[in-house]
Request: fold
Amino acid sequence: MRKKIVAGNWKMNKNLREGISLASEIVNMVDDEVMDDVTVILNPPYIHLESVGKLIRGSGKTYLGAQNCNENDSGAFTGEVSVEMLKSVGCEYVILGHSERREFFKESNEILARKVDIVLEKGLKPIFCCGESLDIREKGTYVAYVSKQITESLFHLDKEQFKNIVIAYEPIWAIGTGVNASSEQAQEMHASLRQHLASKFGSEFADEISILYGGSCKPSNAKELFAGPDVDGGLIGGASLKAKDFVDIIKSF
Ligand code: 13P
Reply:
């Protein structure tokens, strides 16, 4: 049985006080209202990690994740944050390859492969993002495009490593636009990605990997999106900044 996961990506939002208040609201609601079989992950900005981590500790249902990391162990990389640092504040997950990092910070599939390696080496779990632009969607080559992202950044891993990967399919045209992929579009891509994983690792193994959907997911559409048999949860942006909306999405399972 693969894990059901809902992760909140706060992106560059909330100051520390606001972040602590949001996290404590979410943690309390999750503890009281959410089924045990859903894993909830909060991914606040780096500087909130320690404070949010303290709130999460002891929750048992909510986990801490970062939004990025550097691909090197340590050293002269001004302004960067290492995986060891993330681990030291209690992070268990790291989002990698978000389309905003690919676009604004020019992260390539090759760099992402290195980030995946160091995250796994330190014992954390990557939430690996993939997804196509509107242009590629309209050309009809989206399955090949997204499969290539997976191949180039993840297919050097062995099964033992890959079982710690969470995949997040986030079509760029759906991120922050209010226009989500339809449940059919999400299911089609998720099933194709699982097929792609099966071609490398076998279908039994591919069946165990959680594939999340991200892009304008909100309380009003989460139930329908999560109903797809290959949709194992969501990576939530805007709606994760309001405790009730985020928890309502989690409860859509
Ligand atoms: P929105 O939910 O705001 O569309 O963002 C999705 C996302 O990018 C999560 O990583």
Q: What stands out?
A: The chain has one domain: 4-250. The longest strand covers residues 4-9. The chain has a mean pLDDT of 97. The chain is about 45% helix and 15% strand.
